[in-house]
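Sanity check. The docking grid for serine depends on where the pocket ends up, so I'm generating a full predicted complex first rather than guessing from homology. Inputs follow.
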Amino acid sequence: MPMRKPAILITGASGEVGQALIEHLAAAGDSRLLSMDLQPLPARLVGMSTHVQGDLLDTHLLARLVSEYEVDVIYHLAALLSTRSEVTPELAHEVNVEGTLGLLRLAAEQTQWRNRAIRFIFPSSIAVYGMPDRESKHLYARVREFEWNQPRTMYGCNKLYCEMLGCYYSRHYRQLAAQQPATIDFRCVRFPGLLSALTVPSGGTSDYGPEMIHAAARGEPYACFVRAEARIPFMAMPDAVSALLRLASVPRSSLSRQVYNVTAFSLSAAQIRARVLAAFPDAQIEFVPDVKREAIVDSWPADLDDTAARMDWGWAPAYDWDRAFDESLLPTVRARYQHPNS
Ligand code: SER
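Predicted complex below; grid placement will be based on this.
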């Protein structure tokens, strides 16, 4: 039998986090990358990874991939985000839950077959939390992993359940077998809203943050769909990538849990607007709340307690809001719209 090629598999590779992760892993250069998405990779990433354009729900495609590649690590990033998922909740369930289940099963089978744990890295979200009202959100400002797990969105339900499935597959899968087989190594981070200069998000509910910045850089007016005081935590994309990589790299023995909050800074929409206006004094940003989308943002905590990640695997964001805006978002977003083809 021909040797299979060792690889890191990245699903949702053409999405925001996927693009940033591929760039980083390709620059590090020590592993073969296998990427998957319904969409092609953007031109600037072509050649950095072997890209398979296809559907995560296509079990034949997945079987073909594992017959050709020996996948050691999976970054499972493919998902429909929260606003998009409210428009087509059943499709969201199919992609977000069944897609994840299929991949967990594949990872479990490969783990058993090789008797070596595949590492399964899963980004979850602030959307797994559901604060019942604004007063609770104000009172319980920094939420820990086990608190307020009553999501309001299909996306939040999907992510919370997939976290549980990941833990199940890594701890209890085939628990009644005479000899329990080797199980996968599942690790998960719950991200706050992500701010990326290179990509504009689509279908999320934290999108007002990045949209405000991108619209100002393009010289377009922006109607922010939450009120000025609405607040959630955010993180710059380079930190999101480093959280995934760091969590993937630490020994299993140093992890006291499998699901970790990570965050960088908590901002109101007014604070984002003020910073954008300081950089783009002509920007026209007004608040025109969409009460339904705003209610989703209101159900997400004002901040996350990421003490466990800091203690167990030395998590610390490199970018606070000043540095994220001045050193990452602003120069990159300016260059992007001044030289749109670069
Ligand atoms: N950024 C995501 C969304 O808005 C939350 O994880 O859907």
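Relevant for the grid: The mean pLDDT is 95.
Also worth noting: The chain has one domain: 79-337.
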